[in-house]
Design a protein that fits this description.
Blueprint lengths: L4 H14 L9 H8 L3 H13 L3 E4 L5 E4 L8 H9 L15 H19 L2 H11 L2
Antiparallel strand pairs: 1-2
Amino acid sequence: MRYSKATNFALHTMVNLMLQPRDSLVGVQELAEMQHLSPTYLSKILTKLAKAGLIESTPGAKGGYKIARTKHEISFLDVINATEGDTSLFDCSIHHEGCLIEKVMWQAEENMKSELKSKLLIDIAKEAESKHK
């Protein structure tokens, strides 16, 4: 099981945006430079985050991105679902009712989702901010 690089960059981008003053906009170029990414590649990730309602995009020369929701509402799972989708990691290849293997795998996924939902990005942002002071 492995998350894509896009999810890694999305999580880091969200933390970077959370460290910005409220309602300030950050351009794609600046966000891309923070992670040594191409702005074109990051734009695709930002589009997914915007479609999920996690960030807002303001077009134009003075435009950019900012957090769209209350910072204390955004979990790791929200960002992962925005980039990876909300599909099951395991799909039983033998279709029979009451598959015990599928039941174990489904429960493990639910436990992982619950853990990721309980972890808020703002907590990571605050920790990162305190280390850089």
